[in-house]
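User: quick one, sequence for these C-alpha cells?
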C-alpha cells in the first residue's frame, strides 16, 4: 500500500483509474434492496395504488419488486435502463437482504417469499445469478451477470426452529445477522437500552450457523451481542455495513474494541454511505467521510479486512415523497429513535446516484491508496474474507 498526501485534488486521472479498476477487477457492495429504485411511470402507479389501500411498507415494496420483474420481461427499455445503471456503477456483485423490505422484524413467510422471488428473477431476467461462495461471485463477475449473495438482517424468522435456517441455507442463504435494531430471541439490537448479550438460544444459533458455514453478521447488533457473537463463533464474523463510533457516536457505529475483536478473530468490516452514520451533521456528509471511517477501521482491523458497503437501499434521487415517509415510519417501528433516524433518501456528496459509485473508488485513489489496495477495498477483501470463513474455524 502507498499512502500519499491528502491534499491532492480529485482529478480526471483518478476517475479514469477508477473506471479501469471497475472494468478489469472485481467489485462487491452491500445493497439490501438488491439495487437502486428506478422509478418508471408504471412503477409509480403500483406504489401509489398500494399506499392508497393502506398496505404496510413491505407489501408496497414487494408489489413494486414483483411488477419490476414483469416490466423487465415486457419492456426492453426498462431492462436496458437497469443494465445501463449497473454498467455505469461498475458494481458486479452484491449482498442483498431476504425479508428486508418488511423492515419490521420479518417472519419465515417473508424469507420464503424472497427466496422464491430471487430464484424467479434469476430465471426470467437473465440479469442476476444467485451465488453461494466466493468462486460463484468471481464467475458471475467474469460472465457479466450481477452476482447476488443472499443474507438476512435479522434472525427473528428462525424462532426456535433451526430447521428453517437449514432450509434457507439449502436455498442460497449465506449471511445471517443475529439481530436488527431491537431485541429478539437471540440477543439485543443496537437500539436496546439494556444492552444484554447473546441469549442461550443465541449461542445455539451461532453454533448452528458455524456448522452450516453461514457467515454471522453483527452490523445492527448491540455492543454485548456483537462482542459475544465474535467471541463465540468458531469462524470469523463480519460487520457487513456500519461505521466507526470514534468518528461519530451513532448507535449504528461500532466502537474500537469491537473492531479490535474483529481483528483478533479474522473478521471483516464494511463502511456505509449513510450520511447520519458518518457524521452528526449529516447534511454535510461526503464521500470523504466514508474514506475517513474506512481509514479508521483499517488502522485497527487491518487494510486487508475492510471494504465498501454502501447500504444503498432507499437512497435514490427519485425516491417519491410518499414512499420516503412510509419508509421513515417503518424504520421508527423497527427500533430507530426519531433523533437517530437517517434522512430517507439522503446520500453523501459525490455519491448522489447509483451511477456515481466509481467516485468512491476515485476518492480512495485520491486518498493515496495504490491500485492493488483499492482492488481489495472495493471487493477483493470481501472475497478473501469469505474464503477465510469457509476454511477457518478459529476456536477449533
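Assistant:
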Amino acid at each position: 500500500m502507498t499512502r500519499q498526501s491528502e491534499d491532492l485534488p480529485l482529478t480526471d486521472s483518478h476517475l479514469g483509474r477508477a473506471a479501469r479498476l471497475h472494468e478489469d477487477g472485481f467489485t462487491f457492495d452491500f445493497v439490501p434492496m438488491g439495487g437502486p429504485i428506478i422509478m418508471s411511470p408504471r412503477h409509480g402507479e403500483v406504489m401509489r395504488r398500494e399506499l392508497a389501500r393502506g398496505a404496510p411498507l413491505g407489501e408496497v415494496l414487494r408489489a413494486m419488486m414483483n411488477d419490476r420483474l414483469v416490466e423487465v420481461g415486457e419492456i426492453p427499455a426498462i431492462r436496458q435502463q437497469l443494465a445501463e445503471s449497473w454498467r455505469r456503477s461498475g458494481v458486479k456483485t452484491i449482498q442483498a437482504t431476504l425479508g428486508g423490505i418488511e423492515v419490521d422484524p420479518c417472519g419465515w413467510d417473508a424469507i420464503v417469499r424472497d427466496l422464491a422471488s430471487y430464484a424467479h428473477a434469476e430465471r426470467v431476467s437473465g440479469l442476476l445469478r444467485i451465488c453461494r461462495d466466493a468462486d460463484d461471485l468471481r464467475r458471475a463477475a467474469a460472465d457479466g451477470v450481477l452476482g447476488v449473495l443472499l443474507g438476512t438482517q435479522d434472525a427473528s424468522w428462525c424462532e426456535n426452529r433451526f430447521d428453517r435456517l437449514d432450509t434457507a441455507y439449502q436455498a442460497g442463504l449465506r449471511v445471517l445477522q443475529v439481530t436488527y435494531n431491537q431485541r429478539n430471541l437471540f440477543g439485543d439490537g443496537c437500539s436496546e437500552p439494556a444492552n444484554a448479550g447473546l441469549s442461550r438460544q443465541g449461542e445455539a444459533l451461532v453454533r448452528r450457523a458455524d456448522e452450516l458455514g453461514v457467515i454471522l453478521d453483527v452490523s445492527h447488533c448491540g455492543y454485548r451481542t456483537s462482542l459475544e457473537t465474535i467471541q463465540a463463533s468458531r469462524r470469523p464474523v463480519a460487520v457487513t455495513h456500519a461505521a466507526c463510533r470514534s468518528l461519530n457516536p451513532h448507535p449504528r457505529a461500532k466502537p474500537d474494541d469491537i473492531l479490535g475483536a474483529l481483528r483478533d478473530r479474522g473478521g471483516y468490516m464494511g463502511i456505509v454511505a449513510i450520511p447520519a452514520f458518518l457524521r452528526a451533521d449529516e447534511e454535510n456528509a461526503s464521500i470523504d467521510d466514508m474514506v475517513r471511517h474506512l481509514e479508521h477501521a483499517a488502522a485497527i482491523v487491518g487494510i486487508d479486512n475492510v471494504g465498501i458497503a454502501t447500504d444503498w437501499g432507499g437512497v435514490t434521487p427519485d425516491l417519491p415523497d410518499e414512499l420516503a415517509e412510509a419508509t421513515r415510519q417503518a424504520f421508527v417501528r423497527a427500533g430507530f429513535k426519531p433523533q437517530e433516524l437517517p434522512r430517507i433518501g439522503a446520500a453523501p456528496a459525490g455519491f448522489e446516484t447509483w451511477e456515481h459509485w466509481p467516485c468512491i473508488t476515485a476518492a480512495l485513489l485520491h486518498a493515496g491508496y495504490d491500485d492493488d489496495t483499492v482492488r481489495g477495498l472495493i471487493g477483493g477483501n470481501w472475497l478473501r474474507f469469505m474464503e477465510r470463513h469457509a476454511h477457518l474455524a478459529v476456536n477449533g
